[in-house]
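The data are passed on as follows:
___
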Amino acid sequence: MVYASNTKCPAVGGKVVSFNQDEIKKMPGVLDAFVIEGTGKPVEVMPGVAIIAKSTWQAFKAKDALKVVWDESQASKDSTRGSAAKAREIAAGPLPKPAVNIGDVDAAFAKGKVVEAYYEYSFVSHTPLEPMNTTAHWHDGVMEIWSPTQQSDRGVSMVAGMVGVPDDNVIVHQMRCGGGFGRRLMNDYMMEAAAIALKVKAPVKLQWKREDDFAHDFYRPGGHHALKAAVNDGRLDAWQEHFITYSADGKTEVSGANFSTNLMNTTLAPNIRRCTSMMPLMTPTGPWRGPRDNAQVFVQQCFMHECAVAANRDYVEFLLDVVNRDIPELRIKPGPQINFDAKRASGVIKLAAQKIGWGKKLPKGRGIGLAWAFSFGGHVAEAVELSVDDKKKITVHRIVVAADVGPVINLSGAENQAQGGAIDGLSTAMGLEIGVDNGRIQQANFNTYPVLRIRSAPPVEVHFIQSDFTPTGLGEPGVPPLAGALGNAIFAATGERVRQMPLKNLGYSI
């Protein structure tokens, strides 16, 4: 077996013009170095420079010495700062044609108490424990692959199409390790290894560096929400949401950037208006743990809390009133992932409130927040108790998770999933952000992408409501409620609203 590294343009869409091939091939342990033309699709193989060496270390040393001239005429010029400014301009302008328009929103605004806010959240990276890698061997007309992929069947067809062989001539050994969180739904690293293996008469192990993993992810897309609501007689009467998101073609949202239909089941008001605007984006995006819900529930649950305060209602009471409304026009047709049940929603909200001690008297600077989500068929509520000092340093004292995901058989495994989801949600809400400038990802490693450390991880207690409903899994639904609960707890402790993630940009630390 030999070892490979691959270097792609830091701005997606760039192509190789030339590189210092002679110098690289003279380095210790280097067996070859050549250009991979690729297919031009980020989900397949982008142009790059492959280095083949006797060890991974030698391949990485040669990679560090690479000098590549890139043609960036068709490369991304994306800027997250520019997009954020543009989104605010769009939000200040007229509303586009609504995709959802139920009741009479304007009449509700005229007679009720109006609440307005603007929320936004950042792009984030998957950063699984193990950077992308694959071993591939082209022999006897067969491409044999060892890869930590989440979707091996899709990889078989993709590789077969690129190599030009029947699917039966591609063998994928699925290595169940390394972490994924949605990143390994894409098989670009598998495709790269296969493309390199076609030019190497030996098994070849492609190994990405951590910097490659940050620079060439399929990121959770950022988003921007201009919201306006009306409360009347202590109830949510109208909800208007202008979702400003991203598109590669101006017609369809990029992967992971569309509005979550789960929220249709949880934002129940007699008057609803929803519309979407799209901004251009070349940066690849994709599913990230709890797709769409992982950020949009933060927006919904924090703004819902703003509405409850405006209505002078207890938030738990306000939430229970909303989820128990019967508005048939808002119901999404039931299916494998759509099994919303108001009683189950009420059950987890009440349980989380009970276990956290909702309504108890707290000292100054300490607060409790709660949020809930219907995600991937699961009903999950989470509550956070925290304190904030005068330097905006947050101490999270407790997190409570209450979940109804059907019958729980492996209790310890389920508890671990829920704890992990809550910690992932806390880590992301507090400090994680991917910035893009001139098409280039600005974070290269964990020194600029501060994942939550063990010293800051709070205790997480988990409570399940055992039910006879179809089991729905627990890997995803534990993430979405945390950010909303965190934001609402900060308001309870300080009186300050947090309307953007990550919270580090507002001066908060943990």
In short: The chain is about 25% helix and 25% strand. The longest strand covers residues 235-247. The CA atoms of residues 80 and 436 lie 5 Å apart. The chain has a mean pLDDT of 96.
